[in-house]
Design brief:
Number of helices: 26
Strand content: 15-25%
Largest sheet: 7 strands, mixed
Shape: elongated
Number of strands: 26
Radius of gyration: 32 Å
Strand order of the largest sheet: 14-26-25-24-15-22-23
Number of domains: 5
Length: 710
Amino acid sequence: MAAASALKLRIEGMDCGSCAAKIETAMRRLPGVAEVEVSVAASSMSITVDEDRTTREAIRAKVDSLGFKAIDPAAGPAAVHDHTAAEASWWSTAKGRLVLTSGALLAGAWGVSWLEPQWAAWPYVVAAIVALVPVARRAVAGALNGTPFSIETLMAVAAIGAIAIGEAPEAATVVFLFAVGELLEGVAASRARAGVKALVDLIPRTARRIRGDEVETVAAQDLAVGDLVLVRPGDRIPSDGTVADGTSEVNEAPITGESRPVLKDPGSSVYAGSVNANGELRVTITKAAADNTIARIVHMVEEAQASKAPTARFIERFSRWYTPAAMAFALLVILVLPLLAGGDWQTWIYRGLAVLLIACPCALVISTPAAIASALAGGARRGLLIKGGAALETLGRVKAVAFDKTGTLTEGRPRVIDIVAVDGTADETLSKAAAVERGSSHPLGLAILEEAQSRELAIPNAFGGVAAPGKGVTARLMSGFVTVGSPRQAVEKGLLAPETAARVAELEDAGNTVVAVSEGARLIGLVALRDTLRPDAAAGLERLRTLGLRTVMLTGDNARAAAAIAGELGVEHRAELMPAAKLETIARHLKDGPIAMVGDGVNDAPALAAASVGVAMGGGTDVALETADAALLRDRVGGVAELVVLSRATLSNIWTNVALALGLKGAFLVATLAGATPLWMAILADTGATVLVTANALRLLRFDPSGTAR
């Protein structure tokens, strides 16, 4: 059996959740299809299929038969992921042409009815049928492919029924309003997609590549890793890179949301799409166009928008039985009173047809995904990256937020404050500690190595380094095995004399982190390090508390240093936690409700995974974008509160949308049964609600993180 192929197609003409559901249902009925995911926000379909059983051409033909347009991936990546293509004017689209044609026919029919009333019926019938043909065609295609109760089916039955009972003007008006509603849905959907397109538009089309003494203009997508480019003042940086020469301030607001320009000099990292302010820079490209920060953000947002939130899944399940139930209710409206109470057949058929129009589920189905898609795009434009609707919903429901200390509440760049020689000299203690930590990625290890290098000490060679999480690192030097670890580990080995323990306590009481350097069975010295708090750490934690959330700091650092930091921040804390203890602490908090864990995305991976939602302080790194459920590109503690506010605003938006959709339907249903709603007005119960729901969801594109939760 051939291996399944993963394909991605761009789908045109798909504007709402029911459209996506119709395509998914049809695809799942094809032989050899293993998985299918349709995203309205990204206008795309991802499908895993055995191409020996169902070809790409068959998939494309099936999508086209449903009334949409599938662009084959064989046409090239640009065809599938071309966010830069200009949106077609509404009047040039198929839906726009249908609106103009049916509107003209409706106006003509009205003119005939005014001039020659005896001929009024037939022009309205023609107007209704012309507009109804594409709707009926889609209804039949949907029914043949597993979706018999689609909005097109409801519309076709209602319009045909209206013509049959002599209400052709009503039928023509209803179908015209339906076409207008679909056109407005398409315009609103393209506005939602513009949130992601705006990110892509940040990348310049061209770059100035330096080759020898020449500067040539090339397409930005043609840049390769290692290329040197010239970035003049006012230019956008064409791809991720490192400054090779020059000094300038760079505006990174479009990428990270950071409002203040950031000073860049040789060795500094820069992001694609950020704007060079005042100096000329030469930048060495470190990421190709397909892998730069913008591309990864767009890819992540698209995947997140394609994934369904729990509320969206519930509403989809609800709509599966809601639509046939509504059709059954409409049939009862038509039959019950005429049969049981002698009601007028035409009156109750008319009202039953109005109930069919009111029952259309589009507004309800799109209420959640429209809000989720807008929130994800709006958040991404402000440096708040969330991997899907489930994480977005969970953030708004958390009761507590746990923080790692080093690299999260602190800058993660500690420096050596003091060296206490116990057996030997301070330089010997530092050089041997640096030898063990060489190659380490831990902030404390990097600080020790940097201090030794700044003192120009001779760092001996070390071999076979072994790390014990939460305890220390041991390596073999020429003089013996040297361990750099916690004072607690030194106590366990019996290496800490009372006077040395007192010195450790003194250093830790001052808020320092102390590591013990031992060789064999003797302690050779202590190294004290201190990290600085992030500038917004205290304000960020305070804002979380004003949102009603409990905050706690979880750290493997010593109790005294942790207490000093916690006291400064006014936060609960648990110290000297091994990785397993962090997991146990998260598990205990989960008993009281959902909890978010905020860490640096590397050494906190287990705790991030165990929490209800994991948030990485990432600064745009690969780890931040790939490890946790959400990432903060601005690297600010305050971003956690912004995530919570965004989530709460989204949940509020969703329930407002649901209330709008169901409320309008309920009001129109009562009015219809009372005989106060004509057919043309009944269509507003869904078409009007769909437009209102989408417009409400689009407000999240303008999400203001400085606002308060609703």
